[in-house]
Amino acid sequence: MKKTTLLHNPTAGDNDFSKKELVRLIKKEGFECAYSSVKEEGWDTFENDTDFLIVAGGDGTVRRAAKALMKRKRLDKQYPLALLPHGTANNIATALQIEGHLKEIIPHWHHYHLKPFDIGRVHGIGEDLFFLEAFGYGIFPRLMKVMSKIEGDIGDTAEEKLKAARAVLLEIVQSYEARPCTIVADGVEHSGNYIMVEIMNIRSIGPNLVLAGEADPGDGMLDVVMVSEESRSKFESFLLSRINDEDKEFSFSTIRARKVKIFWDGKDGHIDDERLKIEAPVEVEIEIQPDMLQFVVTEGLNP
Q1: Cα end-to-end span (Å), the chain
Q2: How far apart are the C-alpha atoms of 292 and 290, rounded to whole Å?
Q3: Taking the model in full, what pTM does it have?
Q4: Are 256 and 186 in contact (CB under 8 A)?
Q5: pLDDT digits (tens, 9 = 90+) for 39-66
Q6: Nearest Cα to 60, choosing from 271, 218, 269, 219?
Q7: Residue 302 has pLDDT above 50, yes or no
Q8: pLDDT (tens digit, 9 = 90+) per residue, 142-175?
Q9: Where are the transmembrane segments (predicted)?
Q10: Are the CB atoms for 263 and 184 separated by under 8 Å?
């Protein structure tokens, strides 16, 4: 019998996502299940005989679990992560093709394989930081700032919140001042005036917007996506298509690299879903660190 530990964000859901219901469904499938709320002290202490950790929540909860694992010594036991996505965007779960109802996901854990997952390491902004999704400048951190102020007025469902965020982002794109930026990707320099530069580890960020369609979080590469002043109208069209649920294809200027240096003449920065306090422009170096995490994926959910 596989032994699991459930890492639960109790504020992320409703009755279907309560501690009682989650534990019931997991045990019903024959898994042992210890419980920890990520809101309580000591949640990141795991039993050594645990087979894998179950992360129940959104992208922020996944990042929190990953941060706890990153603090462990390399000689300590490393635990795979199984996801029960229940956030607004669930970009990490989407990158791993994990979707569906809990009752559909949990039974597949009897037959799984492990998917390596890289992280991006960021140097130059205080302490070294890491990201699972993306590090970037420009319109996305500005979106985070605006959304934090209107959070209570944008609907209750994930669909309503995503649509509202896309609409707000469109307004930002229409007025955001393009900033000078120099990017050196694996030794090759690119520069210009941009409204957005994102160094991405997965396909989508923010309100489920796919910006790097070929990105694979386990391929040892970063995808640098740039939207210049000249591409502003194209990005507006992209957002309008997503707001209207249209399935038009768009692609943006993208560079693939293992190591990136970036100098952005501005202060709007983010790492995953957290805004960064950048008091003055600074050169930042980002490098990919392969296979730092492992996620439980299954054939049934990953055609």
Answers
A1: 26
A2: 6
A3: 0.93
A4: no
A5: 999 999 999 999 999 999 999 999 999 9
A6: 271
A7: no
A8: 999 999 998 777 777 888 899 999 999 999 999 9
A9: none
A10: no
* 136: pLDDT strictly greater than 70: yes
Give Rg (Cα) of the chain.
19
Q: Mean pLDDT across the stretch 271-277?
A: 93
- Sign for the pseudo-dihedral over CA of 56, 61, 63, 69: negative
pLDDT above 60 for 117: yes
CA distance 24 to 20: 6
Task: Using DSSP, state whether 112 is helix, strand or coil.
Answer: strand
Q: Are the beta carbons of 212 and 144 closer than 8 angstroms?
A: no
* CA–CA dist 138, 226 (Å, integer): 10
In contact, 222 and 201? CB cutoff 8 Å = yes
- Which residues make beta-bridge pairs with 120? 131, 288
Q: Which residues contact 298 (CB under 8 A, 6 or more apart)?
A: 108, 109, 111, 112, 113
Among residues 114, 115, 112, 105, the alpha carbon closest in space to that of 26 is found at 105
Q: Which two tokens stand for residue 40?
A: 């309580």
Distances (CA, A) of 177 to 78, 189, 266: 44, 22, 10
pLDDT of residue 301: 52
| pLDDT over threshold 60, residue 300 | no
pLDDT in tens, 75-107: 678 899 999 999 889 999 999 999 989 999 999
What are the chain's domains? 3-117+293-298 (3.40.50.10330), 121-291 (2.60.200.40)
Dihedral sign for Cα 67, 69, 75, 81, please: negative
